Amino acid sequence: MPELPQMKNRGRWDIFCTVVDNFGDIGVTWRLARQLVAEHAVDVRLWVDDLRAFERLCPEIEIHAPQQWQQGVEVRQWAAEWQPVEAADVVIAAFACQLPSPYMDAMAARETPPLWMNLDYLSAEDWVIGCHGLPSVKYKSVQKFFFFPGFQKGTGGLLRETGLLERRRQFQQNPEARREFLQGLGIDPAPAAQLISLFAYENTGLASWLDTLAADSAPTHLLVPEGRILGDVERWLGINGLVAGALHVREALTVQVLPFIRQDQYDHLLWCCDFNAVRGEDSFVRAQWAGRPLLWHIYQQEENIHLDKLEAFLALYTKGLSAPAAEAISGLWRAWNAGQDIADQWLATRKHWPELQKHAEAWCLEQALQADLAAALVQFYVNWI
After folding, report:
1. DSSP β-ladder status, 220-225 and 253-258
2. Mean of the pLDDT values across residues 323-347?
């Protein structure tokens, strides 16, 4: 993508976010809003309907404030009783959320209609390239456009802040920085232990994985940020009420519960680990930028259509791997997303560890050749005006 033209200000942008799955939607829109402000001279209003969920990502949020500024972003409470405001120059409906009717009327009332985009869910499916940037529905004089994040040329790319990979590289090459970060979270792994992060939805296949890790000849330190998978961890341990700071050892496996941490801290956690189990969209993308092998727990959808997305990504991700390594990592992902016993798939994956490590870094660098999502959105706006 050519360098964006210099503009003193690229207008006011409104980003609308309805919190559907606790943190995924707000996680993506919060990253995007901050990057637009910091890197593209954009004035952003972020409209959020659940500030309590937002508070977990940004503890400074005042959950009852109708209007506040956080890290340069104007955060507005998307209340049921909508108060009239002037529509922005660019309007982003994140993940197909429905805009308030009075706001849509305000868009139509502008002398110059705004650019209205539906920022859709991330997918590697082939049809995304054909639909990206196309007109969608129209409301009076205002045309909406599809905007798809993606992994291939012809899509909107992935969220990636300027300099992210260089900061990651410097961190991963600095053992002291890694040690200090882990100590700050109360993590003191054994010198030879592999470090694994686990952030996932509920999964009946977890017990088989933990059994395998516990029986391994090599030690594993499993880091579990507070979240939905914690109930399954409790059942495996045979205890109730796991909270942040809890630490339990069973044979070769140490399980440690971490508090829900800020996005930047979570990035560093991913960078520290040898393997990252992630879920949804935001943590999935950040694990790819970590350049380490990963396991994705995709968000389940009706009629199992999410499995098509899983297969589409695997088809892309495993290119360049040897056939045995591709079969092993694909089998692990499929079994995990089906809630099946993954012991055999994990052991098969471990046989190809050096190749998978090298491939994870190569995939990261390949994706970084594309324009990032924020830059692609700004370019779309520049082209539109």
Report:
1. parallel
2. 98
Classify burial at 332, counting beta carbons within 10 Å of its beta carbon; exposed 0-12, middle 13-18, buried 19 or more. buried
Distances (CA, A) of 227 to 56, 170, 257: 11, 29, 10
What is the sign, positive or negative, of the torsion defined by CA atoms of 312, 26, 135, 373? negative
SS3 222: strand
Is residue 14 flagged as an active site residue? no
Catalytic-labelled residue, pool 14, 89, 120, 281: 281
Q: 3-class SS at 75?
A: strand
Question: Would the pLDDT of 366 be above 90?
Answer: yes
Tokens describing residue 124: 């590697």
How many residues comprise the chain?
A: 385
For 164-222, the pLDDT digits (tens) are: 999 999 999 999 999 999 999 999 998 899 999 999 999 999 999 999 999 999 999 99
Residue 1 has pLDDT above 70, yes or no: no
Nearest C-alpha neighbor of 346 from the set 222, 182, 174: 222
CB-based contact 88:112 (threshold 8 Å): no
Quick one: DSSP state of residue 304? G
- Measuring CA to CA, which residue among 272, 375, 137, 294 is closest to residue 283? 294
Q: Is 206 helix (H, G, I), strand (E, B) or coil?
A: helix
**300 compared with 347, residue with greater pLDDT:** 347
| Contact call for residues 356 and 324 (beta carbons, < 8 A) | no
Residue 180 a catalytic site member: no
Does the CA dihedral 167-172-177-178 come out positive or negative?
Answer: positive
What's the CA angle centered on 19, arms 14 and 25, to 5 degrees?
Answer: 70
Q: Which of 14, 25, 120, 282 is catalytic?
A: 25
From the list 141, 221, 145, the residue with the least C-alpha distance to 189 is: 221
Element (H, E) at 336: helix 323-337
Per the prediction, the chain carries an average pLDDT of 93
Question: Mean per-residue pLDDT for 3-20?
Answer: 73
Rounded to 5 degrees, what are φ and ψ at 46? -105, 115
Look-up: residue for tokens 């507005």? 76
Residue % of the chain over a pLDDT of 70: 97
What is the mean pLDDT of the segment spanning 314-321?
Answer: 97
Q: Which pLDDT band holds residue 230 (cuts at 50, 70, 90)?
A: very high
